[in-house]
Design a protein that fits this description.
Layout: H1 3-11, H2 15-31, E1 47-49, E2 52-54, E3 58-60, H3 71-75, E4 81-87, E5 100-103, E6 108-111, H4 120-129, E7 138-143, H5 154-165, E8 171-175, H6 190-211, E9 217-221, H7 227-239, E10 244-247, E11 268-271, H8 275-289, E12 295-298, H9 304-312, E13 317-320, H10 322-327, H11 330-342
Parallel strand pairs: 3-4, 3-13, 4-7, 7-8, 8-9, 9-10, 10-12, 12-13
Antiparallel strand pairs: 1-2, 5-6, 6-11
Helix pairs in contact: 5-6, 6-7, 7-8, 9-11
C-alpha cells in the first residue's frame, strides 16, 4: 500500500501543513481514478441505525474535513459514512498556530484547533457540489458555536446551523464536547443540556414539517465525565428522544503521555491514549441508555480489534480520525472486515 511509504514524509512536516498536503493528495488520486492505490476493497456490512441504512458501520469522524472540501475523495476510500465539520455560523480562524501535535510514541494527537472553519455557508456550497450525498451517501454535519458567542447564547448558534444544514445533511451532530472552545463543555451540565436539547428538538420538528423529511440528531459528548454525569446525560437524551449519541470526543487527561515530547501541550488528546477512557464511558453510557438510542463509538480506534471492542461495549457504528492519520486508508478496510465478522448477525443485506 502507498500510505506507509509516504507517512514518513508527512510526519517530517508540521502536522497542520502535512494535513493540508495529504488531503490535496487524496483529492488528486481520487480525481485521477487512483484511489485504489490508497484503499483496499471494503467488506459490505449493511446496518440500520437512526432509521438510516449504512453500507458498513465504519465512519470518518468530524475534524478531518472541517469544510466539506474533500467529501467525494474520502468517500472513495470505503467509509460507510462521513462526518464533516465542526462548522460554525460565521467563519473563524480558530486558535493561534501551532495547534496540532503528534505523539508518535503513543500513537496520539493533541489538538487545540478551536473550530477553525470557513463558516456554514461555505460548507453548504461544498456539500451541494459533492456527488456522494446526491448518490445516497450518508453525510453527517457536525455543528458548533462561534468562539465569540457568549455561552448563554450558544443555543442561537446551534439553531442557526441546524436551520441551514438540515436539508443537506443525512444526520446532524451537536458538538458540545470540544475542549478547545472556552466554556463549551458547560453545555453538558444538567440544566444547560436540557435547555439546549429542548430547543434543538423543537426546531427539528419544525424543520421536518417544512422540508418533509426527518433528519436525525446526535449529541457528541466528552470522555471526561463521571458516573453521575453520564447517567444524567443518558436521562436527558432519553427524555428529549434524541436519535443517537457519539461517545466520545477528545480528552483533557494526559495519562500515559505526560512524559512524552509535546505530551503536555494544551488541547484535546486523541488516538490510542484515549481508547480505554473513551470505551469505559461508552460502556457506562450503554448501560444507562439500555438500548433506547444508538451509540456511535469513537476514540482511539487504531485497528479492527479496537473497533470490535467498541461494538462489544454497546456501539452500533464506529468512527475514527487519529487512526486514519497513523494507519492511513487501509484502516477502513481492516475495520470493516473485522466488524463484518463481529456483527454478522446484525448485518442485513438490502
Amino acid at each position: 500500500m502507498l500510505y506507509p511509504l509516504i507517512r514518513k514524509f508527512f510526519f517530517a512536516l508540521d502536522a497542520e501543513t502535512a494535513h493540508g498536503i495529504g488531503m490535496s493528495g487524496v483529492d488528486f488520486l481520487s480525481a485521477a481514478g487512483f484511489s485504489c492505490l490508497l484503499a483496499k476493497p471494503v467488506t459490505p456490512c449493511p446496518v440500520e441505525v437512526m432509521g438510516l441504512k449504512f453500507p458498513n458501520p465504519v465512519g470518518l469522524a468530524a475534524g478531518l474535513d472541517k469544510n466539506g472540501d474533500h467529501i467525494d475523495a474520502l468517500a472513495r476510500l470505503g467509509f460507510g459514512f462521513i462526518e464533516i465539520g465542526t462548522v460554525t455560523p460565521r467563519p473563524q480562524e480558530g486558535n493561534p498556530k501551532p495547534r496540532l501535535f503528534r505523539l508518535p510514541e503513543a500513537q496520539g494527537i493533541i489538538n487545540r484547533m478551536g473550530f477553525n472553519n470557513a463558516g456554514v455557508d461555505r460548507l453548504l456550497e461544498n456539500v451541494r457540489r459533492a456527488e456522494f450525498p446526491k448518490k445516497g451517501g450518508i453525510l453527517g454535519v457536525n455543528i458548533g458555536k462561534n468562539a465569540t458567542t457568549p455561552i448563554e447564547k450558544a443555543a442561537e448558534d446551534y439553531l442557526v446551523c441546524l436551520d441551514k444544514v438540515y436539508n443537506d445533511a443525512t444526520y446532524i451532530t451537536v458538538n458540545i464536547s470540544s475542549p478547545n472552545t472556552k466554556n463549551l463543555r458547560e453545555l453538558q451540565k444538567d440544566e444547560a443540556l436540557d435547555d439546549l436539547l429542548s430547543q434543538l428538538k423543537a426546531r427539528q420538528a419544525e424543520l421536518a414539517q417544512k422540508h418533509g423529511k426527518y433528519v436525525p440528531l446526535a449529541l457528541k459528548i466528552a470522555p471526561d465525565l463521571d458516573d453521575l454525569q453520564i447517567a444524567a446525560i443518558a436521562d436527558t437524551l432519553r427524555h428529549h428522544r434524541f436519535d443517537a449519541v457519539i461517545a466520545t470526543n477528545t480528552t483533557l487527561s494526559r495519562d500515559g503521555v505526560e512524559d512524552l515530547p509535546g505530551g503536555n501541550e494544551t488541547g484535546g488528546l486523541s488516538g490510542a491514549p484515549v481508547f480505554a477512557r473513551s470505551t469505559a464511558v461508552q460502556k457506562k453510557l450503554a448501560a444507562a441508555l439500555a438500548g433506547e438510542l444508538p451509540i456511535i463509538g469513537v476514540g482511539g480506534i487504531m485497528g479492527g480489534e479496537d473497533a470490535a471492542e467498541k461494538i462489544r461495549a454497546g456501539a452500533s457504528l464506529v468512527q475514527f480520525y487519529s487512526g486514519f492519520i497513523y494507519r492511513g486508508p487501509e484502516l477502513v478496510a481492516e475495520v470493516a472486515e473485522t466488524l463484518a465478522q463481529v456483527m454478522k448477525k446484525d448485518c442485513r443485506q438490502g
